[in-house]
Design brief:
Chains A, B: Keywords: DNA-binding, Transcription, Transcription regulation. 2 copies of one chain form a homodimer. Chain A contains 9 helices and no strands. The first copy, chain A, is mainly α. The structure holds a DNA duplex.
DNA sequence: TCTTGAACTGAACGGGTGTTCAGATAGGGT
DNA sequence: ACCCTATCTGAACACCCGTTCAGTTCAAGA
């Protein structure tokens, strides 16, 4: 029965990862069995081991791939910020909008990326943490620069970075594409809240 | 060996719930076995069934108890807000500070409350969702009133409610009691960010 | 046409799962 | 001193787990 039309390694491999992503996001890593993943792909459990050495690696590959995509997508965004002036205010706005848009396009990957970290081996966990930190540092640099220029009123850039990312991540818990608000509208509202939450008060002295 | 000193139902029952809370928070509901919980208590697995009809109920009892405590603690906070003037600004500040303080005191319960919802039966899930909504409505009412009085600049009170709670919940992912910042300091920084993120711009017209 | 080997099956491995229950144990009431 | 019963044990139940592997199938290369 092997080697049916269109059932080569190039096709089954991605299907295995897609099935794992879907099921891990829906039920959690620990609650999903290799047999369930295999059934979703339409294959016996043993066949999965042609595409992953074990269940744990299947998870960490998904997470590393996702985090890699986040990092390179944000890198690709930087030139566009420069093109629009490149100040901390433009950077912060771009970050908020990028984060919302990018993450809403991959809700399952984002979901498991912060739900299933504890199911990684220490080595895999450390690697993921480093990537996450790199992403957060991108935001913190914007805050640091804005603070230095007196544009932002931020007492602790590290805490603020985490608080802003938490707020932005929250969109995943409720956003539905067919919902009341359009993606653009959601993006704008979040970008506005982010901007206001760190903006320095306009000094009355300047106006008076 | 039964009925050792101090090993009555009144004592073992709470110990079972405490062990389950600890292990569920650390490893996740699906990854923790009844035998592990029993071992933590110092008892055989069968004995757990004197204190819970099944594993699922053990989880939902923990979640419902926690959510009940959140709601009643917030109710108890309301008179104190009234005493301090009772406006939307005072209410919002009180909510942020209450949320941070209360949740940091129960990190494990909070953790499982938004990680393990999917492991509940639909009935138990619905009950929990209703309680969570009631809590969120407390915050939204503050925003609605502040918006009506022109104190807050909030285009969508529902979205803003969820965004603010997400931001406040984020504190759990990084706060360590022995860390760099004191609880009071963290509380103040978050309360400040919350306040600024919804505050209406001071109109230059008023000043000029 | 024959051979090769990638892709997959299906059964098996040892071990863990939630849950049940007959029986042992021992503190409190009489 | 005795019994009662709340409490707990330890074994068993049927089933599911991740992983391995000998064997089967069949498209492609020679």
């Amino acid at each position: 029965m092997a080697r049916k039309q269109g059932s080569h390694s190039d096709i089954t491999g991605p299907r295995v990862r897609a099935a794992a992503l879907k099921l891990f996001a829906a039920h959690g890593f620990a609650a999903v069995s290799m047999r369930q993943i295999a059934a979703e792909v339409g294959v016996q459990a043993g066949a999965l081991y042609l595409y992953t050495p074990d269940k744990q690696t299947l998870l960490s590959d998904l997470l590393e791939t996702h985090m890699g995509e986040v990092l390179s997508a944000w890198q690709a965004e930087l030139p566009r910020i420069e093109a629009r002036g490149g100040g901390p205010e433009a950077g912060l706005d771009a970050f908020a909008r990028f984060h919302i848009r990018f993450h809403l396009a991959r809700p399952q990957a984002v979901f498991i990326s912060y739900m299933e970290l504890r199911n990684l081996t220490p080595e895999n966990f450390a690697k993921l943490e480093a990537m996450r930190k790199q992403y957060e540092d991108g935001l913190e640099q914007i805050l640091i620069e804005g603070k230095a220029r007196g544009l932002f009123d931020v007492s602790d850039t590290k805490l603020t970075t985490l608080a802003l990312i938490s707020m932005l991540n929250g969109v995943l818990t409720w956003y539905k594409p067919e919902g009341r608000l359009s993606l653009d509208r959601v993006e704008s509202i979040y970008a506005d809240m982010v901007s206001k939450s760190v903006r320095a008060q306009e000094r009355s002295a300047q106006i008076a």
